[in-house]
UniProtKB/TrEMBL annotation, chain A:
InterPro entries: FAD-bd_PCMH, FAD-bd_PCMH-like_sf, FAD-bd_PCMH_sub2, FAD-linked_Oxase-like_C, Oxid_FAD_bind_N. The keyword Flavoprotein applies. It comes from Novispirillum itersonii (Aquaspirillum itersonii). Signal peptide: none annotated. Residues 1-181 form the FAD-binding PCMH-type domain. It comes from the Bacteria. Gene3D superfamilies: 3.30.465.10. GO terms for molecular function: catalytic activity; FAD binding. This is Glycolate oxidase FAD binding subunit. The keyword Phosphoprotein does not apply.
UniProtKB/TrEMBL annotation, chain B:
Its cofactor is FAD. SUPFAM superfamilies: FAD-binding/transporter-associated domain-like, FAD-linked oxidases, C-terminal domain. Pfam families: FAD-oxidase_C, FAD_binding_4. InterPro entries: FAD-bd_oxidored_4_C, FAD-bd_PCMH, FAD-bd_PCMH-like_sf, FAD-bd_PCMH_sub2, FAD-linked_Oxase-like_C, FAD-linked_OxidoTrans_Type4, Oxid_FAD_bind_N, Vanillyl_alc_oxidase_C-sub2. Keywords: FAD, Flavoprotein, Oxidoreductase. It comes from Novispirillum itersonii (Aquaspirillum itersonii). This is Glycolate oxidase. Its EC number is 1.1.3.15.
Length: 383, 494
């Protein structure tokens, strides 16, 4: 693999034009921290966006941050934090899980479309992508969306590129909607609940007016409910939740709560165990326990953590359990499973992303052909 | 604004098209002039055009058959929900079938355990909230037409409302869609779970203004209704102070449920109309609504009040009862009809700007007002910088409609010039179509049209809307790549 690292968008476009003319596949990456997710890319050349780095515009009062695609996420987090703001979709930090030294770039995050614990309440990564600059399949630079928080002008191309794993266009710059970070937070922890009881309590809390912003459960471990906001509100809602739950809880104050959720965002309960394949399942919340039950039948040593009140299930299980068996556990139309960590050989066999219905798959293929007619962007990645 | 010319070859086949549609929906084809009249425009009533024919399907299968037929016979389709679009999104075409979704009017399921509802696209926005209010839930996006507009139309337009800053647009409150493609295929995107395994097709379809497919079912996210809501009414001598106050509220880390601004002319028009108790001498008015538990609302209200004082508010009132809160809103919500009282006609514009440019944009809007010789009243979703200038004119005076349109176009050009966009929530439709090149370059538009080519390569769905011209998909598919050598000397390689 030969890597090309242009220093600006013009040079990056030149690389793409060259590749398109030769129909030469390109592996697109930022820092490559998520290269181990998805099917392996079949390409002899790589286009690194690491040279396109830096925050180009950030006015906290406008709630908009614009940065080059290769900007380290850590730099963005630091700039936001200094202004008392944050990324509302709370991107997970997969570095511990995937064994990378840091969490990569903004472009990598958006291309992977990753969202964390606050996703059901604050929206997903794609909900916060306001606009992008990019390079199309023939090497043509373009702009999509805008740099203001409210915009419905034309097709929302930015959303399509978010979560497309670099298969439709090369992102060079991204504008994000950002928000003030909550003033304070607290977490209610419950111990010793089985999955059914825990998920039922999380559901109850989510239907209450407590305005929960994190609802998680570690199978065989802790159950957590997070509250964020002004201190008086967090105290009041916390009391309401305690009354509702009617069980002994441990209350984590602001600092302890932040610490708990930071560890959660690193998926420590999963990353800690043996090096088994890790799957991420998006589910109908009330069906999550049943799905985990089926998976546990396949592998009694299953490690499972629930997020999003059951809408998200992370599992680590034996490599002997086949992808088809895992997908069969998901009720038809009730979600999808993505393989997030597995040895190369497993990923190369395909089946990382859930198969789409034939008409949807055909439409996705038409989109891919329309945006990347030469088939040069990350060939094989979403296969 | 010119409507696209009808294709005489299609018009001459009208009887056959009507016949074919009657085969598919025997009791749902409107072909008589008097009955068609009801469909001749949408909320952009300055544009009127009799549709070729209207068809009112009842089932997804009928929609699929209609689309298959139209594709096979090369007949254009204009999808229509409740017809409340302010940008001409469902303005009929003389050579197109208007596909009206009004009969898809059932709420299919409310699933409070998973906090969502599955509804047909013709259900009104407000009906969803009504169906779940006794359980303490609601559907958050609340466009001002919510009593009439349909959820399918909301999806097509990515509709907003006064609570967007905190709760998002339609796109941020959708879980799933069922839609029919131009191929006649029925697809499901999303569901009661979150996020898609492949490309975010639902995200692209949302706000695509009827150009990509016909939505036949919608799964929306339901939210728990906040325990309380209170509003603060703030008057300022000039809009610059009000804008500074908005920035101060956001900078204090407060994201209000609603944060609206009105300028002097809008304040006085609204006050004359509904007597909400607005300070008629003020140059700008802010309404800031906080929602949540009472203890939180009280705390935040105190902070907003002190920020208002610090920024020179000359009037400061906080609602103490629900009736008073609604009264504060009554003037704002009646701003459009109030404009209708002081002027025979008005055009409602919809641009977004970076908020810091607001004082400058307002001043330049006054210059434009003098230049075009027409009055303008301004209401804004101030929290997210979404402007709704109301241009006042009299269509009976020769040339005034054209001047109003020119004024509106100048305002939108101004929005783009200061770093904003052509439309924050009303959509491009026909109204702003010809301004697209102001905001997007040729290549930007070509990239957007690559989406169209994947969904509707023959350009049969809602033609003439959003894009001034559509490139032929075969042309977009061709690769125009020259060269074939890498600028190796300039590139670090490792």
């Amino acid at each position: 693999m030969e890597w090309l690292t242009p220093a600006d968008e013009t040079a990056a476009a030149e690389v793409v034009r060259w590749a398109a003319a030769r129909r030469e596949g390109l592996e697109i990456r930022g820092h490559g921290t998520k290269a181990a997710i998805g099917s392996p890319v079949q390409a002899a050349f790589g286009l690194s966006l690491a040279g396109l780095s830096g925050i180009t515009a950030y006015d906290p009062a406008e709630l908009v941050l614009t940065a080059a695609a290769g900007t380290p996420l850590a730099e963005i987090r630091a700039a936001l934090s200094a202004a008392g703001q944050h990324l509302p979709f709370e991107p997970p930090d997969l570095s511990a899980l995937l064994g990378t030294p840091e969490e990569g770039t903004l472009g990598g995050l958006v291309s992977a479309g990753l969202s964390g614990a606050r996703r059901p309440f604050a929206g997903a990564c794609r909900d916060h992508v306001l606009g992008v600059r990019g390079i199309g399949g023939g090497g043509e630079p373009f702009r999509a969306g805008g740099q203001v928080v409210k915009n419905v002008t034309g097709f929302d191309l930015s959303k399509l590129l978010c979560g497309a794993w670099g298969t439709l266009a090369v992102l060079t710059e991204i504008s994000l909607k950002v928000l003030p970070a909550p003033e304070t937070q607290a977490t209610l922890l419950l111990d010793g609940l089985d999955d059914t009881r825990a998920l039922s309590l999380l559901g109850q809390a989510l239907r209450s007016p407590a305005d929960v912003s994190g609802a998680a459960h570690v199978s065989g471990g802790e159950t957590a409910l997070r509250l964020e906001g002004p201190p008086e509100s967090v105290r009041w809602r916390g009391q309401g939740l305690r009354d509702l739950l009617g069980l002994p809880v441990r209350l984590l104050d602001d600092a302890a709560s932040r610490d708990w959720w930071q560890r959660w965002q690193r998926l420590e309960p999963l990353a800690a165990g043996p090096d088994f394949p890790v799957w991420k399942l998006s589910l109908v919340p009330t069906q999550a326990v049943a799905v985990a039950g089926l998976l546990r039948q396949a592998d009694p040593s299953l490690r499972a953590v629930y997020d999003w009140g059951g809408g998200l299930l992370w599992v680590a299980l034996s490599p002997t359990v086949e992808a088809a068996r895992i997908r069969q556990a998901v009720p038809p139309g009730g979600g999808h499973a993505t393989l997030i960590r597995a040895p190369l050989a497993v990923r190369a066999a395909g089946g990382v992303f859930a198969p789409e219905a034939p008409a949807v798959a055909a439409l996705s293929r038409r989109l891919k052909d329309s945006f990347d007619p030469a088939g040069i962007f990350n060939p094989g990645r979403m296969a | 604004m010119q409507l696209p010319a009808a294709d005489p070859a299609i018009v001459s086949r009208r009887a056959a098209i009507v016949g074919a549609l009657r085969e598919i929906v025997p009791d749902g084809v409107i072909a008589e002039d008097t009955a068609l009249r009801a469909y001749e425009s949408d909320g952009l009533s300055a544009l009127r055009q009799m549709p070729l024919v209207v068809v009112l399907p009842r089932t997804t299968e009928q929609v699929a058959r209609i689309l298959s037929y139209c594709r096979r016979d090369g007949v254009k389709i204009v999808p229509r929900g409740a017809g409340t679009s302010l940008s001409g999104g469902s303005t009929p075409l003389g050579d197109a079938v208007t596909l009206a979704m009004g009969r898809f009017n059932r709420i299919l399921e409310v699933d409070l355990d998973n906090r969502c509802a599955v509804v047909q696209p013709g259900v009104t926005n407000l009906a969803i909230s009504r169906a779940v209010e006794s359980d303490g839930f609601y559907y958050a996006p609340d466009p001002s037409s919510q009593i009439a507009c349909s959820i399918g139309g909301n999806v097509a337009e990515n509709a907003g409302g006064v609570h967007c800053l905190k709760y998002g647009l339609t796109a941020n409150n959708l879980l799933g869609l069922e839609m029919v493609l131009m191929t006649g295929e029925v697809i499901r995107l999303g569901g009661r779970h979150l996020d898609a395994p492949g490309y975010d097709l639902m995200g692209v379809v949302t706000g695509s203004e009827g150009l990509l497919g016909v939505i036949t079912e919608v799964t929306v996210r339901l939210l728990r209704r906040p325990e309380t809501a209170r509003a603060v009414l703030m008057g300022f001598e000039d809009p610059g102070q009000a804008a500074a106050c908005v920035a101060a509220i956001i900078a204090a880390g407060i994201i209000p449920a609603g944060l609206e601004m009105m300028d002097g002319p809008a304040i006085r028009a609204a006050e004359d109309f509904v007597h909400a108790g607005y300070p008629t001498e003020a140059g700008a008015l802010l309404i800031c609504e906080l929602d949540g538990p009472a203890v939180e609302v009280d705390a935040l209200i105190a902070r907003v009040e002190s920020l208002a004082r610090a920024n020179g508010a000359t009037t400061l009132r906080t609602s103490t009862t629900e009736a008073e809160r609604l009264l504060f809103w009554a003037g704002r919500k009646a701003a459009f009809p109030a404009a209708g009282r002081i002027s025979p006609d008005y055009l409602c514009m919809d641009g977004t700007i970076p908020r810091r440019r607001l004082p400058e944009v307002l001043a330049r809007m006054q210059d434009l007002s003098r230049l075009h010789g027409l009055r303008v009243a301004n209401v804004f979703h101030a929290g997210d910088g979404n402007l709704h200038p109301l241009i006042l004119f009299d269509a009976n005076r020769p040339g005034e409609l054209e001047r109003a349109e020119a004024f509106g176009a100048d305002i939108l050009r101004l929005c783009v010039e200061v770093g904003g966009v052509l439309t924050g929530e009303h959509g491009v439709g026909l109204e702003k179509r010809d301004l697209m090149p102001v905001m997007f370059g040729e290549e930007d538009i070509r990239q957007q049209q690559r989406i169209k080519c994947a969904f509707d390569p023959d350009h049969l769905l809602n033609p003439g809307k959003v894009y001034p011209t559509l490139h032929r998909c075969a042309e977009l598919g061709r690769l125009h790549v020259s060269g074939g050598h890498l600028p190796f000397p300039d590139l670090p390689r490792f």
